[in-house]
Amino acid sequence: MQPEINGSPVVEYGAQAMRLMSENQIEPTPNAYSVWYSYASSQNKELLDQINQRFTDEKPFDSPFMYEMASLLALPQSDLANSTLEAGEQLSDKMDNILELMSSVTGDTSQFGKSMEGVSAALTSEISAADLGQVVDTIVAATKQMEARSRQLEDKLIESKSEVEELRTNLVAARSEAMTDQLTGIPNRKAFDEVLLSEIATVSQNSSPLCLVMGDIDHFKKFNDTFGHQAGDQVLRLVGRCLSSNIKGQDTPARYGGEEFVMVLPNTILEDAVTVANHIRKVIQSRELIKKSTGQNLGKVTMSLGVSQFQLGDTPQSLIERADTALYAAKDQGRNRVIASGEAEQAAAG
User: Fold this and answer.
1) Any idea which fold 189-349 has?
2) Do the beta carbons of residue 312 and residue 204 sit within 8 Å?
3) Which helix (H) or strand (E) holds 262?
4) Of the listed 68, 86, 117, 259, which one is catalytic?
5) What is the mean pLDDT of the chain?
6) Is the dihedral of CA 186, 189, 194, 200 positive or negative?
7) What is the pLDDT of residues 195-253, one digit of tens each?
8) Backbone phi and psi for residue 258, each to the nearest 5 degrees, phi listed first
9) Which pLDDT tens digit goes with each residue over 20-36?
10) Residue-by-residue DSSP string for 81-129
């Protein structure tokens, strides 16, 4: 049954979507409207549940979260998908041009062969000096034509190689951008998921240690409400910089979503991962925040962190769950601290 348009659920859902975007300070893009229209109309249960949970947790509807919600509706995430598709089409067109040119040269080669067969037949029979000169002219003309076509092919292949390399560079850049959190400049949730899955596959084979750190900015919603979203974004960028500048090259920091951050630490035992987490916690705590637009001193922020170490048989989800449990234990014990998963379990048991 098609929905009514005038004075109907369609209009009501649309109005609700616009109101929700306004109330939650969400830019009214086509994708955002589709997400909130779906929420208002309860069309997608998973989307409905996740947004309701977001309200319950009092977390902001930031870009990474909206990205995830759009993916549930199979909506185009950004111009990155279009640029990747466009680059693929350009590459396909370029290959078609090369194949067409190769086919043309193949035809020329066949014609050259036939010309040479005719020359060979003429040379095996009695031939006058005049006819011999004509045969030589035929050979020279056919050879020059073949040389010209071969040179044209070589030039086109060189040109195509350069263009294909440029397309490859563009695709790599598009993938890198798609894996980067645009606000903080560190890897995003999608990149984290891929890295964690890859590292778990590696340590499952070679038994090397692997740790996961999950961190959450303390009282971030209150900070946002007090000083505004721009100041909140400044805090998120600060945390991103602190993470990326205080880990080793093999480690991967990422923005998990909202005010939550993660670090994947390969070849690191639990004790050392706790040390890394504590160092980062202290660095963040030591930074004075100044509002750029006004020069106002915003004070300092703190971070609570939970750490888990890979155990044989772990999945990404189980490793994340233990780190998350440790993180919430750190919150429960007063915030601005690091708790390892073993400590969290002991606290829960006690």
Assistant:
1) Alpha-Beta Plaits (3.30.70)
2) yes
3) strand 260-266
4) 259
5) 80
6) positive
7) 999 999 999 989 999 999 999 999 999 998 899 888 999 999 999 999 999 998 899 99
8) 60, -125
9) 888 888 877 777 888 89
10) HHHHHHHHHHHHHHHHHHHHHHHHHHHHHHHHHHHHHHHHHHHTS---H
Does position 142 have pLDDT exceeding 70, yes or no?
Answer: no
Task: Give the DSSP letter of residue 267.
Answer: T
pLDDT of residue 2: 32
d(CA 17, CA 22): 9
Helices (H), 179-228: 189-206, 220-227
User: Treating both helix axes as pointing N-terminal to C-terminal, what angle do 229-245 and 220-227 enclose, rounded to 10 degrees?
Assistant: 130
| pLDDT-wise least confident of 41-55, 133-147, 310-324 | 133-147
95/90 Cα distance (integer angstroms)? 9
Which has the closest alpha carbon to 36: 182, 22, 58?
22
Strand partners, 340: 307
pTM: 0.58
CA dist 329 and 349 (Å) reads 12
Is the distance from CB of 196 to CB of 316 less than 8 angstroms?
yes
Q: Alpha carbon of 120 to those of 130, 144, 274, 307: distances in Å?
A: 16, 18, 84, 82
Catalytic residue check, 259: yes
d(CA 119, CA 31): 69
Nearest to 35 by CA among 78, 68, 82: 68
